[in-house]
Structures are given as structure tokens and as C-alpha cells.
Design a protein that fits this description.
about 325 residues; globular; 4-stranded mixed β-sheet; 13 helices; D-Maltodextrin-Binding Protein, domain 2; alpha/beta; 2 domains; 5-stranded mixed β-sheet; 11 strands
């Protein structure tokens, strides 16, 4: 491996700085993982390849997807839901209660199944580099806790612009409201929405812990974020550069996992100071009973349903969580 990267460093090519978009703030572990990827590329290519991260972007994910397709943005880390309408395979890892745990999700998506889903993105103009598992996603609410699906009835819930997300909230007998990510804070403050959903790390990193005082451990989804490159830009690169970028992205996944563990302790302390109540006595079965039967509707394609069954069959006893997190 060392000889290979020495060859990369000596390869005659012009220096290139790539632009990467990210909605999260700089201190988010996901942004830090992309920054680590950039460091690896600088080191391995003697600064011939670098990445400039536009963190805290106020652009919508749909806009960034369009910019990736046209090459106006080189790379981005986005929620997988941003690709649901164009790459149906990306719906599969987003299904509620599909993965038994974060480790089950990461092991599955780091392997051949994940490679197949990433490869499905290419025909739509994107090069899937890797998945970043950010932890289980749960609903957080501003005015009352959520302990069972009955508590969701009548709530207005912010969702990502995705038909899958809308169907999930509808099944929970709540109202969905699709809003850009940077509108969520104000919408919670104003009472425009009663709840939203995200993983614990993003809940705190984005400051939503200051306005939503109940983080309810529904842990209904293990949907990861995905790191993607513009196919238009990718096709202009040498094979050597493509290999270097893929290797750095893959190596950044382990760094992310370490950062999430470290950040969780900080997040727990900060959320406690913000007065957040972590609601642990959630009846998760009441959610699963309504959401798992949605699979045929959310994934009508027979080949993708076979993929769902393959993922379900890959779970191990060790994947069954003994207690909810955080």
C-alpha cells in the first residue's frame, strides 16, 4: 500500500482542489470525517489533491443533488433520502426497523450489498464513495414526550423531501411537513412543527437540543448519510486519482466511527445542560407494528424486495441491542 501511494505522489498531474458540500456544522463528526479524507489525500498525493468543505450549507439537498449532476459541486455528503426519487435502491437502507443495530447497518453497507446500492447511483450521475453511519434516528419533540405511536397522532412532523418519509409519518397518524434542513430550528421555535427526527449526534451538533426538549428513543431508522462524487467531474479524472479518492473515502469511515463515540460523550453533557429529557421508555413495537408492513408499498420493485430480505437474513444475534442508546 505504501509503494502504491508513493506512486500516486510522483504521478505527473496538475494540482486539484475539489469542492464538497455539507449541511452540517464544522464540529459534526460527519464533516470531520470528510476533512480527515481530505487530509489523507493531501498526505498521499503531496497536496496535489485537496478537498475544500463548504460546511453548514444553507442550500437544499435537492439543489445540491442538481449541482452534483451538472458538476457545479464536485462532492457532497447527503442524507440518503435525497436520492430516493432518482435511485430507488437508496430507499432500502432507509426502511424503518430494517437493521437490527448500527453495527448490522455498517457491516451490511460496508460489504457487497452496500457496493451494489452505491453502484446503482452511477447511471443517475453520481459516484457513490461510501456510507457514513451516523447512528439510530429517533423523533425529537418540543412540547411533549413520545412514548408510543399514539403520542404521534395529530403532531406535525418535519420530514426530509422524500415520499418515503411522508408515507412513514402518515402511517404514524401524524402530519408531515417537508422543510429544508436549516429551517427546522425556527419551525420548532415557532410551533410550525411539533417534532422532527435525526440521530443523536446531529440533534446536538445542529443545536436542536436547545429548542426540542424531548429526545424520544424510537430508534426507528438506521439510515446513513452517503458520500458522493459528481460523475461528470469523476469522468475527467485519471484512474490513479479515482483510486486515491475511493481509498481515502473508505479509510475515513473508521475515523468517523471513532469520532461519533468521542462526540457522543460531549453531546450527552451538552444536552443535559440544555435540559433535554431522553425518553427511554418508548414502546418501539408500537412503531414497528405500523411501519414494517409498509415495506411492499415503499419498495414495490421485486428485486429490491429481495435485497430487503437479504439484509434481514444477514442479522446476527450480536446485532440485537440490549438497551437503547444514547
Amino acid at each position: 500500500m505504501g509503494v502504491f501511494f508513493m506512486a500516486l505522489a510522483s504521478a505527473p498531474a496538475a494540482a486539484r482542489e475539489f469542492r464538497s458540500a455539507d449541511l452540517a456544522p464544522a464540529e459534526s463528526p460527519g464533516v470531520e470525517a470528510v476533512d480527515h479524507m481530505a487530509s489523507l489525500l493531501r498526505e498521499r498525493t503531496q497536496s496535489r489533491i485537496d478537498i475544500k468543505i463548504g460546511h453548514g450549507s444553507t442550500d437544499s439537498e435537492n439543489l445540491i443533488v442538481g449541482q452534483l449532476r451538472t458538476g457545479l459541486v464536485d462532492m457532497a455528503r447527503l442524507n440518503l433520502s435525497a436520492f430516493h426519487s432518482t435511485v430507488p435502491a437508496t430507499i432500502v437502507p432507509s426502511l424503518p426497523f430494517l437493521f437490527r443495530s448500527t453495527s448490522h447497518m455498517q457491516r451490511t453497507l460496508d460489504g457487497p450489498i452496500g457496493d451494489r446500492i452505491l453502484a446503482a447511483m452511477e447511471k443517475e450521475g453520481f459516484i457513490g464513495l461510501c456510507f457514513y453511519g451516523m447512528g439510530a434516528r429517533s423523533f425529537y419533540s418540543a412540547r411533549r414526550p413520545i412514548r408510543s405511536v399514539d403520542d404521534m397522532e395529530g403532531m406535525t412532523v418535519r420530514v426530509q423531501p422524500s415520499g418515503t418519509a411522508v408515507e412513514i409519518v402518515r402511517a404514524l397518524r401524524a402530519r408531515s411537513l417537508a422543510l429544508p434542513f436549516d429551517y427546522v430550528d425556527d419551525a420548532l421555535k415557532a410551533g410550525v412543527v411539533d417534532a422532527a427526527e435525526n440521530n443523536w449526534v446531529q440533534f446536538v451538533a445542529t443545536g436542536h437540543d436547545r429548542v426540542a426538549k424531548y429526545y424520544n428513543l424510537t430508534e426507528h431508522s438506521q439510515m446513513p448519510t452517503v458520500l458522493v462524487f459528481s460523475r461528470k467531474v469523476w469522468n475527467e479524472l485519471s484512474r490513479t486519482d479515482q483510486i486515491a479518492i475511493r481509498a481515502a473515502a473508505t479509510d475515513s469511515v473508521a475515523f468517523l466511527n471513532e469520532r461519533i463515540q468521542a462526540y457522543s460523550a460531549v453531546a450527552n453533557d451538552r444536552a443535559q445542560k440544555s435540559g433535554v429529557e431522553v425518553v427511554k421508555d418508548v414502546n418501539r413495537k408500537s412503531f414497528a407494528d405500523l411501519l414494517v408492513p409498509l415495506y411492499p408499498k415503499l419498495v414495490p420493485d421485486g428485486r429490491l424486495r429481495a435485497l430487503v430480505q437479504e439484509i434481514q437474513a444477514s442479522a446476527e444475534i450480536a446485532d440485537i441491542p440490549e438497551k437503547p442508546s444514547p
